[in-house]
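Following up on my earlier thread - several people asked me to post the actual chain instead of describing it. Fair enough. Here it is, all 247 residues.
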Amino acid sequence: MAKLSGKRAVVTGAGNGIGLAIARVFADEGARVLTVDVSAADLDAAFGGDERFATLVEDVAADDAPSSIVGAAIDQFGGIDILVNNAGIVVAGPFDTLTDEQFDSIMGVNVRAIFRISREAVPHLKASGAGRIINLGSIMSDLAGPALAIYGTSKHAVAGLSKGMAVDLGSYGITVNYLQPGSIVTKMSEPFMDDPEFKAYWEAKAPIGRLGQPDEVAAAALFLASAEAQFVSGVGFNVDGGAIVQF
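Reply from S.P.:
Thanks for posting it. Predicted structure:
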């Protein structure tokens, strides 16, 4: 039997990269998936004509995003079993050049949206009896990097928020975990990968000796969403080729 047969999932930031890979592997394993992204073109290119997916164009940081996203899932599927808070943004720059607007924007998408959408979904995840929340952190949830002060702050916050959610929601059978990808080849990472020194650094930092692919992060998400992970909660799940453990 497929690992997610009959499950109802929501994946934000699903138009490309890691979110797209997660949505596809969930559907391949039997789930019905509401894919959410700010780009209608990306959603149409990725999921148009595939009846396994429902799509919703939404900015996760918008005031009405929680009710819009959860409402769409209930309208389409009648409930929610799995919520993947994948949507995220990055702005890079020396600390003393960063602006209030950049700070608020990154924290709004990478942290506040997770808090608000998850809170809206909790009643339905409780009703599921075995709800799953998977948040997207980063190895920057544990580390820091040059020119990534705000991004790293947001990912540290994802770790703390996920742990607190796991404690508060565990009694309802809801598990909460966060993925910690390393350097993954995605649309968001492309500008960084265009720098040969940056690319070579991350290839060398991972003991496996290469960059990661979205499908490899999706495989970890599938495990956390499945019954096999029913006793796993509050965990930061590294998918980084070992980069975090090597100097």
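Helices lie at 17-28, 40-47, 65-77, 100-128, 149-169, 190-193, 196-205, 214-225. That should answer part of your original question.
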